[in-house]
Amino acid sequence: MSMDSDATKSATLAFIYDREATRQTDRLDTRIALCREYAARLGWRVAGQWVDRGDAAVAERRPFWIGMVAAMKHEGQGFNAVCLVASWERIAYDERGRAQMRQLVSDVNGTCVAIDGGSVPPSSRDAALRRLRASGERVGPGVTLVRHNGATA
User: Fold this and answer.
1) pLDDT value, residue 10
2) Residue 61: CB partners within 8 Å, gap ≥ 6?
3) Domain locations in the chain as residue ranges
4) 11, 80, 94, 111: least surrounded by Cβ within 10 Å?
């Protein structure tokens, strides 16, 4: 591996997010562990994990998502800040809600990555992979990167 790719890896800071509306923690713990293993495999540093629970996990405004975005803005400067989730449904089940939440990440120059990107339309996935290749950052198979570049004030 070249030093350039090592520098790119170490320059990525992962912010792991999940949510769980039930009191069940086994599946949640497994998803968080998968995200941590995935980040380690790619050589990404993990900034921490944010989990919304109970009613907050299904609310439109989620306290830990908002806290994670604030941390990305503060700690992610000088890094490739990535919100890492096990699947897109961990952000929201509906596409509109998911897009709104991903936009908050993009607003602080972050990117959302799902380990299991199966729910992303192929055209979005293809465009995302082209952007990844253009940036020189390598991401493992089955992973998608979605970045929303909206107008900022």
Assistant:
1) 60
2) none
3) 12-119
4) 94
